[in-house]
């Protein structure tokens, strides 16, 4: 966000005993809180060599946020000083008490003595230092006050001190009822150079120019890096309205209001604030000062460009296109190549909503590199990689392109784009079914430190890319049966991205999907059905697909088939190849259950062709497993085993635990079916090998608590042990099968059922 311009001034104010004065054209006020800071600086000068090096260092670090930040309660200020130097906090309290309980002349004498800090050959404070400028501003502001204003300031100081005394009395009463050990280190959790608290804003007086600048820049930084530490949307808007009430031409406040409205998806307020921001830039002449005669036109074209981006964010593509055309027209008239490059990037985003086109994007990347715009060039490369990943390009070529963009990132220290690149790599490896590589990339981003300088107490990498990687990490853990770890990751996501934040929908969707899979594995179809509505609200395609899965599990075949047919047509239209293949596999399973085995084969071959064309290796392996199952049903188990030997390796290396279990179960079925034509000795060896594979499948199913599949495995094992004459093992499997059969809904358990 742009810095506060010197031409923007606050209107004269006198509220709640807070007095201001005009000092060299910059508005500043003498407040009780600032008087407490003056006392702190005075006592710090008196202490001199008595302070240790560590204490002085802590106090120096404390001073800057105190001087820049808004007024705070005396109790919090005193606690902050106590953390750095306890005896100095006592001196400040005593000095303030003498002044507040004394007479007006004591305050007069205090300001007279402040000037001594600059006297002597080696003054305590240099006039041009941060502390020196603050002291001089306060002395000059105080000297400009009339007698009535001085009296009001003195009254405000008394009220400020008395309020703290009352609070201390109440705290002492509470401490008598509270374990003192619980209060130890309380202030250590509060970082003064961290975000502002709502009570601090509420208790402070009107902000001076510098305080307003600090407040706006800090809140804007928090909205970007750690939204949870920023003020709540309602509280922040209330404070911004208070600033704009006394200075409607405060352009930066309008821009922060625009960012705040985006948090809550308020299209009307965000549009209103954005237009006011650019109107104020033009009215105040700030753009003209920095850009000459081009300032007016520059504001207009960037206003149109930002408006187009805003409409695109809310899905108003027609309005976005009109605003973008206006921005392009003005930029062409002014020969502004930088603005035109931004317009070209947004034009690609709008065009891809209608049809896939790499021409605009490639042209944008080349032009951005030509005009020295590494940020835009890198974003273009990222978008190009994403588009070509969906088009089925080889992973090695995509990674080479991302490597080139990474060189740009590190060369220009583009921290945010480094995070986006790693998150993109994670998503690409997930798309191609390489969960191990995706996990490695996710861990890389989590272990990185941000290159951006942020305040203490502010989470780093608290951006959309960080949320995406954590969501993938939670899903990867859930697929491997580590549900407790997945829950911890989701809990962390909920804390870092609250439900009202802009990236909360990411973890909400993954949370619902993980719960859905657990309910389906456990056979609780009514619970899974109740989760479908939440998934549909976040992603309509995922919701419809999961509704069809629930209907299929509940044996409502015709309803499931109708849903899958509609979903297949829609996904083919929008070119969602991954979902098309998943729908085809589900339709094939419906045909198996309806005993239409020959109809399932061309559907599976179509899915396999798509998976190989778009380099979706894991989906291709899963399709091959389904083809092997079809061949088993059609009575050619030997051919099914040959296919399994080709397809099972990627599943065992990168697949979910449930898929591994299903694959091993299918291998055992094929081994048993093939053993029918073997010699007795070879048949016994084949059956024993099948039992070992069933034990492995049973371990996988137990890990994800998939009781239906466990029941089927136990039934199969019992039959095999009976054939081999192992009575004790058969009885054990039969007992476990009976226990599970009583828990689950009663229906037939065929020897050969669906693949999953």
UniProtKB/TrEMBL annotation:
PANTHER family xref list: ANAPHASE-PROMOTING COMPLEX SUBUNIT 5 (PTHR12830)
GO CC annotation terms, alphabetical: anaphase-promoting complex; spindle
Gene3D superfamilies: Tetratricopeptide repeat domain (1.25.40.10)
Keyword vocabulary terms for this entry: Cell cycle, Cell division, Cytoplasm, Cytoskeleton, Mitosis, Nucleus, Phosphoprotein, Repeat, TPR repeat, Ubl conjugation pathway
Protein name listed in UniProt: Anaphase-promoting complex subunit 5
Residue ranges of every copy of the Anaphase-promoting complex subunit domain listed in the record: 254-353
Pathway: Protein modification; protein ubiquitination
Compartments reported by the entry: Cytoplasm, Cytoskeleton, Spindle; Nucleus
Family: Belongs to the APC5 family.
Gene that specifies this protein: Anapc5
Entry function: Component of the anaphase promoting complex/cyclosome (APC/C), a cell cycle-regulated E3 ubiquitin ligase that controls progression through mitosis and the G1 phase of the cell cycle. The APC/C complex acts by mediating ubiquitination and subsequent degradation of target proteins: it mainly mediates the formation of 'Lys-11'-linked polyubiquitin chains and, to a lower extent, the formation of 'Lys-48'- and 'Lys-63'-linked polyubiquitin chains. The APC/C complex catalyzes assembly of branched 'Lys-11'-/'Lys-48'-linked branched ubiquitin chains on target proteins.
Residue span(s) of domain Anaphase-promoting complex subunit 5 N-terminal: 30-167
GO biological process: anaphase-promoting complex-dependent catabolic process; cell division; positive regulation of mitotic metaphase/anaphase transition; protein K11-linked ubiquitination
Family annotation (SMART domains): TPR (SM00028)
Lineage of the organism: Eukaryota, Metazoa, Chordata, Craniata, Vertebrata
One Pfam entry name: ANAPC5
UniProt organism field: Pteruthius melanotis
